[in-house]
Amino acid sequence: MKVLLLKDVYKLGRAGDVKKVADGYGRNFLLPQGFAVLATEGALKRVESIKAAAVKRRAQLNEELGSVAEVLQAVRVSFPVKAGDNGKMYGSITSQDVAEAIKAASGVEVKKQQIELQPIRKLGEYKARIRLTMDLNPEVLVIAYRDGESDPLTVVEEAQTTEE
């Protein structure tokens, strides 16, 4: 099935693009949600107006969320976890855990679906990408450290304040 995208769709395309998609995906998701219309001759004549409107909407959204992206870029979250001798954790840190930690650290509410991160199962530092828009994708530093050890973030902050 060929569809004309009316809105930006993650991992598919931008508004105004004509894409070939599976029939079920188009019929059951894209069309009912208003993300696309069937690519008929009449719809294809509207491509330029759809693209122009999408560019304006994208620019406005990027401007609004630019300050949020800057705040998120500076966020660092850490999790004390129980782990074995080889660094393998008992359990995991999921995108839901990261979303809750981001809200606690910065006050910015992020949905777990916006966070691109595989579940963390080993100690260490990881980058979690937050999808605000198709163009704004700030990264948050996620640190998993052994429970009982000192938090690496507070150690770094203390070192910076003593240097000043």
Report on the architecture of this protein.
With 164 residues, the protein is an alpha+beta fold. It has two domains: 2-45, 3-Layer(aba) Sandwich (Ribosomal Protein L9, domain 1); 69-163, Ribosomal Protein L9, domain 2 (Roll), CATH 3.10.430.100. Helix content is 40%, strand content 26%. It has five helices and nine strands. The protein has helices spanning 23-33, 41-44, 47-73, 95-106, 152-163; strands at 2-5, 18-20, 36-38, 76-81, 88-93, 115-116, 120-122, 124-130, 139-146. It has a four-stranded mixed sheet, covered by helices on one side. A three-stranded antiparallel sheet has the order 2-1-3, with helices on one face. A hairpin with an 8-residue loop joins β8 and β9. The chain is elongated. 16% of the residues are buried.
